[in-house]
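Q: I'm building a small set of examples for a reading group on sequence design. Run inverse folding on the following structure and report the sequence directly after it, with nothing in between.
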């Protein structure tokens, strides 16, 4: 047995799902025994209940620690915390086996040589102990950051009308394997406007995947006029080609649930048939109403599909996975008049505004639905008896488990105990679907969760330059103002430097030197043509001087699967740029 002491404790990133034991914990000691590593988690909030939690960790994660321990002090930074560790081993114990594991197999992804856990294989530096350092090259860093980037230019006039959108740029960087975030972008072909969405899954990717494929269709159908819906229904009824509803902008890595496509079309058809049954549905819904109705209706369909018999076991399994997983969503509908944002959960929409004097400001168009939002916390508590006031949200989580207070799916927080039991007692292999029978504590008066969106409208002005939509993986690392500043500098090429404040004029020579280093760092030209990639790079790699630290960035990107999620979340960013000339002409 060999022991590894963490010289300075590092808080582990909170998980939003229930099946994780790291919540709020800190690594205290690592013990390697045979082929496994055990991590003892120590935390004041837990030690009163559980003196110590032993958690098995994979050989990949153990290998990471051992391979890096050759340095007297390896630093992996997360915010202001640094993890330093040293290693002392008895001769002939696991190090040799772990070194062999690290080098044993490889795969190829995007032209990179990958080791276990999907870590890009770093350059090997020989030593008498046959150890390796983990150091990605600039080429490897760029390949990882740019693997999922997307850039689309929108014609000013597409034959149906003017577009307020000039272009959009997007990117994703996973921490989970597979990535639990999703994104969507589409033009409405039967009505005016474009839609953009980011979706942050939890408990797996299934719900985020389904919502990203389906939600924009529900919104588009609700926007359509009665005449257009009648044409679509007539084509379906007579087996003729159906008019396209959306023009999608897909990245080649984007995935669709093909096995459930027929089910999704069937339920979308039921939705538009019900709209046709309402006499007042003449010219279609207003975007505000369409977004609200579409969010609620899709969540109801997800719940229903998990309860009814379906055509195949594969379709049934997918419906269960979608319903028992969960997803937040932030969707923006943009036309020449303005932006309608519908938000459920903790993704975020932020508007970048350039004032007449050239300065920039960040205007939030959504609010996070979590326990840090006082109004949202009171809304949830008010829906349950006074006796549950102290148990509905505990440890800043719904029933002590879920961080977002609104979400799609997550039927474990919506269905009655009896309904959950009857659905899960079916003949499905729940373990293979990663669905487990458990009831949240203090589950007394469900539902505790809903997908009803909070809606915001903003009338577009010529000074509104871009909209940032992103999952909380970005906002965990960047504030609204910082994100807008980075995109503004990328857009204009002008690096924004605030004048010295009164307090800054009283700086010591050393403090002035630090400020000058920060300002010099901001003047470095952008490395990435794609502004979403630019944001992700700075979110992960910026040091205290405001410059991208290559060593820090390399360390964050080279983390193996087991460790990456403790330092960061999946990140999805879409930046929508507006056509100021079109907005001026429509505003005149």
């Amino acid at each position: 047995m060999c022991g590894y002491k963490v010289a300075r404790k590092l808080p582990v990133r909170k998980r939003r799902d229930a099946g994780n034991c790291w919540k709020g914990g800190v690594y205290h000691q690592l013990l390697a025994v045979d082929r496994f590593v055990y991590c003892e988690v120590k935390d004041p909030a837990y030690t009163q209940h559980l003196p110590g939690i032993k958690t098995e960790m994979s050989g990949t994660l153990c290998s990471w620690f051992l391979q890096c321990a050759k340095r007297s002090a390896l630093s992996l930074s997360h915010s202001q915390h640094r993890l330093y560790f040293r290693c002392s081993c008895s001769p002939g114990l696991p190090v040799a086996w772990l070194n062999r594991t690290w080098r044993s197999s490889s795969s190829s992804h995007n032209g990179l040589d990958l080791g276990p856990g999907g870590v890009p294989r770093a350059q090997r530096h020989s030593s008498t102990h046959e150890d390796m350092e983990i150091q990605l090259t600039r080429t490897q860093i760029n390949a990882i950051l740019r693997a999922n980037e997307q850039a689309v230019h929108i014609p000013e006039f597409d034959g149906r009308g003017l577009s307020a959108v000039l272009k959009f740029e997007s990117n994703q960087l996973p921490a989970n394997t597979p990535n639990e975030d999703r994104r969507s972008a589409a033009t409405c072909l039967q009505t005016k406007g474009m839609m953009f969405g980011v979706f942050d899954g939890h408990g797996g990717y299934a719900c985020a995947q389904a919502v990203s494929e389906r939600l924009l269709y529900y919104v588009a159908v609700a926007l359509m006029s009665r005449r257009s819906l009648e044409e679509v229904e007539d084509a379906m009824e007579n087996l003729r080609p159906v008019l396209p509803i959306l023009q999608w902008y897909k990245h080649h890595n984007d995935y669709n649930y093909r096995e459930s496509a027929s089910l999704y079309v069937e339920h979308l058809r039921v939705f538009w048939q019900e709209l046709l049954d309402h006499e007042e549905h003449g010219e279609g819904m207003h975007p505000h109403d369409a977004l609200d109705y579409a969010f609620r209706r899709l969540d109801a369909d997800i719940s229903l599909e998990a309860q009814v018999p379906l055509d195949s076991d594969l379709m049934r399994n997918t419906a269960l996975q979608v319903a028992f997983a969960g997803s937040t969503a932030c969707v923006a509908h943009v036309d020449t008049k303005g932006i309608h944002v519908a938000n459920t959960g903790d993704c975020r929409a932020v508007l970048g505004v350039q004032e007449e004097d050239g300065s920039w400001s960040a205007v939030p168009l959504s609010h996070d639905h979590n326990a840090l939002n006082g109004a949202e916390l009171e809304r949830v508590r008010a829906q349950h008896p006074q006796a549950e006031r102290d148990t509905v949200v505990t440890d800043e989580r719904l029933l002590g488990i879920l961080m977002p207070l609104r979400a799609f799916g997550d039927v474990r927080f919506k269905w009655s105990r009896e309904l959950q039991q009857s659905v899960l007692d079916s003949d499905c292999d729940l373990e293979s679907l990663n669905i487990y029978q458990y009831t949240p504590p203090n589950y007394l008066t469900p539902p505790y969760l809903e997908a009803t969106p909070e809606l915001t409208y903003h009338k577009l002005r010529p000074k509104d330059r871009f909209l940032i939509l992103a999952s909380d993986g970005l906002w965990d690392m960047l504030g609204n103002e910082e994100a807008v500043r980075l995109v503004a500098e990328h857009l204009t090429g002008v690096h924004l430097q605030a004048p010295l404040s009164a307090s800054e004029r009283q700086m010591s020579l050393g403090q002035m030197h630090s400020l000058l280093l920060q300002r010099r760092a901001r003047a470095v030209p952008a490395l990435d043509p794609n502004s979403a990639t630019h944001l992700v790079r700075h979110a992960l790699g910026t040091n205290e001087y405001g410059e991208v630290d290559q060593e820090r960035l390399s360390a964050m990107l080279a983390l193996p699967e087991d460790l990456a999620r403790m330092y960061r979340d999946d990140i999805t960013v879409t930046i929508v740029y507006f056509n100021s000339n079109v907005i001026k002409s429509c505003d005149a």
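Residues 287-305 form the longest helix (19 residues).
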